[in-house]
Sequence to fold (200 residues):
Amino acid sequence: MVLAGILAFATVSSGASAVDSDPNRPLVAPTFVQKPPVLDGTMSKGEWGRVASTTGFLYTDVNLAAMQSRVWTSFDEENLYICFQSYNPGGIDGAVKDRDEGDLFREDAVEIFLQPGGEGTYYQFGANSLDARFDSEGEIKSWNADWQSASGIVKDQWYVGGTWTIEIAIPFSALGDGGAPADGTTWRGKAGPMKTASAT
Fold:
């Protein structure tokens, strides 16, 4: 499976050998895992250490973000797994608790877009540190998928800033597929953190 990125991130495709036609678009090849990660907001030993990861996120003005996050991706026959980890010296801002609340994207959150096959219908997923979730199928915000997220925050030594880890599982069945994409399949996608809190 391989993810071919748009803007700051990458996309999904199956088979690490897949090549995107645009050399400027980043590719991520999620690692196939026999044992899925436990979604608990903690990067436990053996879960993410040997899977594909990437960083180098950009601001919307296409400049490299000063505070970099890292994202790990893996998959099995049923789910795509994504783990984000980021540090914010101003603390992790999270207040939204309800599902599909648009204000979620006004605070610290992660956002994922996936387009199976690289064309046609796309899906949007978002979550904050309280694990409030947002999802849509294209512009259809009433669409809800059975996906999961789990967050954990570790405060820094001053108990102000913190490192936020969020683990996500998105079932392929929610994206119109009965199982994992075949090797060599390329999806388009975009993923990244949205940070609002800052150091004072």
